[in-house]
Design goal:
single chain, 318 residues, alpha/beta, 8-stranded parallel β-barrel, 11 helices, 42% helix
Length: 318
Amino acid sequence: MTIPEIIAAKGERGFSIEVLPPLKGRGINQLFGNIDRLSQFGPSYINVTTHRSELVYKSTADGMYQRLTERSRPGTVAVAAALQQRYSIPAVPHLICSGYSRLETEYALIDLSFLGINNLLILRGDKARHDNRFIPNENGHAHASELQRQVNDFNRGYFIDGTEMDVVSEAPFSYGVAGYPEKHDEAPNIDSDMNWLKHKVDTGAEYIVTQMFFDNSRFYEFVERCRRAGINVPIIPGVKPIVTRGQLTILPKVFHVDIPSDLVKEIERCTDDVQAKAVGVEWCAAQIADLYANGIPSVHIYSLNATASVEKILKKVL
């Protein structure tokens, strides 16, 4: 089933979670433990993030430094397969432009097709830490819409070199894309951002998952703008519980989102992160309850390393 079909079948009060592949060198048991705690609530699907390689400098025996590329969280395809097999819950790996060539992407699509993983979230991805702007990988894609076209061609039975597949998959890839209620930070204005989003939907995206937001009015306004622009696919709101006081500055800086004044005041009154986490649970639960009450059938929770908070939230809203 595709993600829109899964959401429609659930009917109401659906949710999905997002997880990180383990850091290089670590096992998967901690991730399994986190999902064990949340699987009891019946997530509709599980997103698995993908991470680009970054430049690192490692010392050599002669006292010099060697410049290498290294991926701190490899294994997205393997993790998605392990989760889908273990929990019988659809896994949705992220497919990104950042740090990947078209050929690497093609290999990932072949592997995913063999594994029976047919739902994707297609993203451009972040720029490299050492770059001041996004630079595509050599022979890679600069925009998510270009990556979409590669997936579309694969679905039609064509490799990147134009040759035809001997056998076309009976279960083509279905995919969603990202949307930004508060505008993508690189977009010059909201209209431009909306035009790009419409382009991604016209290129084949079947649903939209939003960047996290902490003020539901931003989401409702975003949905209205999308509908006026002729974007009629499902729009899934993305929410995240704040778990530390430091996230008041980290989240706006990294994700370019605003945090409402009332939430800021509550967090600032906290004397430690335990109190801040409790505030984050209450705020996020209230967000989700309001979204459900306003007819939003499914929410996407950026659970990541906040399993305990997400568990408390789900107990409140389901």
